[in-house]
Structures are given as C-alpha cells and as structure tokens.
Design brief:
The complex is a heterodimer of chains A (114) and B (114). Chain A has no helices and twelve strands. By secondary structure, chain A is mainly β. In chain A, strands 2, 5, 6, 10, 11 and 12 form a six-stranded mixed beta sheet that branches. Chain A has a four-stranded antiparallel beta sheet with strand order 3-9-8-7, with no helix packed on it. In chain A, strands 1-4 form a two-stranded antiparallel ribbon. By secondary structure, chain B is an all-beta fold. Chain B is globular, with a radius of gyration of 13 Å. The model of chain B has no long low-confidence stretch (mean pLDDT 93). Classes of the chains: A mainly beta (114), B mainly beta (114).
Chain lengths: 114, 114
C-alpha cells in the first residue's frame, strides 16, 4: 500500500536553531513530493515541492527540503527557526503521472520557543 | 491568488440529517477534492473530480456523495449524518498537470454531528 509517514508527532526547537521535520514515503514509480503548512483554524498552504532535478528544493518562508531516493525520504529543513514557524506540517506524495490525488502523512506539530 | 471558499466555517447538525458542504474556487481549476482531517490521521481523501459532472471515489467515500454541476463548485453531501462524521472537512483545487501542481485549500468546515 502506498503511504507517507511522519515519525514525530511534535518537534520542539528553540528560536534561532535549525529545524528538521521528517518524512518518509512508500509509493510506486517516481513520486512527486510536497510539504504543506497549516496554521490554527486555517486550510493548508503549499510550502514546496520536488518533481525532478536537484535533490534540494527551496520553498516559501526560508524552508527547504532534501529528496533522498535511496532512503525514500523528503525531510523539511530550515537553518534558523522563528516563533512564527510554529504550526502543523504535512508531507504529501503522489506517484508521477497521477492526476493530483495526494497521499498525506499524519502531520507534525512544530513548536518554536523563544 | 487562487481562492477556495468553503461556505461555512462551523456547522452543527443532528444525527440523521442530510448535510451539504459547499466549495467554490475562482481559478478555473479542473481538479477539485474533498478531504477530511482528523488528529493523528492526517488528511484522507473522500472524493475528487477532474471535470464537470465527473467524480471518483477516494479512500473513504462511505457515507458521502458529491456533486459537480459547474466547474467552479464542488459539493460534499452527507446523506445521513452520523457522529463518526464529526471532523474538519477541507476542499481543494488544482490544475490538471499530471500531479505536479500544488493543491489550493479552503479554510475548512468544522462539522459537529450530535
């Protein structure tokens, strides 16, 4: 079965420190990978995506993610966390050629403390 | 910017009622989706549509139906609401580009069935 796993329910970091939110996937074919962020009482907002090419992709708000095909991972990173980054983060994947139906992970709450 | 509008932020309905959740997008997107979001489970796809009058079941279609009579509008119908359908419902739209276009989400409808 195709799936996405976010192994940490919550990640806590201090403001100014680097952050990593982990994601691994299991899908057939070459996947398209996405990260979304959700602020309280809001819908999801697109952060970044990997389609092909450079394994390091850059997105909104200073976030980046690294695609690792051998480890089937797509971890979200940021060099210096802000308190305003505190939110719920979702990793999502779709096999290439799919019509856009995404498989989501269960979400990771990021808490950045001053 | 793409705008996806869900008609209600909060709804409270009684068991057995027929419930309509409405979603409208303003960017002429072909693809539209309904997800439900539950803590610890991430987002699960209920139904999706690639064109007017076209629909396909997602991962959890039982107890739901959909209607897409116009390109901009995608309605989710709970035929006979039950307490286990208490959840956050998210509508999304995207371009038909083989899965590499991000989804644009509405702010969600939090439905409580009593």
């Amino acid at each position: 079965a195709q799936s996405v796993a976010q192994p940490e329910d919550q990640v806590n970091v201090a403001e100014g420190n680097p952050l990593t939110v982990k994601c691994t996937y299991s899908v057939s074919g070459n996947p398209y990978l996405f990260w979304y962020v959700q602020y309280p009482n809001r819908g999801l907002q697109f952060l970044l995506k990997y389609i092909t090419g450079d394994n390091l992709v850059k997105g909104s708000y200073g976030f980046e993610a690294e695609f690792n095909k051998s480890q089937t991972s797509f971890h979200l990173k940021k060099p210096s966390a802000l308190v305003s980054d505190s939110a719920l983060y979702f990793c999502a994947v779709t096999p290439s050629g799919n019509t856009g139906k995404l498989i989501f992970g269960q979400g990771t709450t990021l808490q950045v403390k001053p | 910017d793409v705008k996806v509008t869900q008609s209600s932020r909060y709804l409270v309905k009684r068991t057995g009622e027929k419930v309509f959740l409405e979603c409208v997008q303003d960017m002429d997107h072909e693809n539209m989706f309904w997800y439900r979001q539950d803590p610890g489970l991430g987002l699960r796809l209920i139904y999706f549509s690639y064109d007017v009058k076209m629909k396909e079941k997602g991962d959890i279609p039982e107890g739901y139906s959909v209607s897409r009579e116009k390109k901009e509008r995608f309605s989710l119908i709970l035929e006979s609401a039950s307490t286990n359908q208490t959840s956050m419902y998210l509508c999304a739209s995207s371009l038909p580009t083989g899965g590499n276009s991000p989804l644009h989400f509405g702010n969600g409808t939090r439905l409580t069935v009593t």
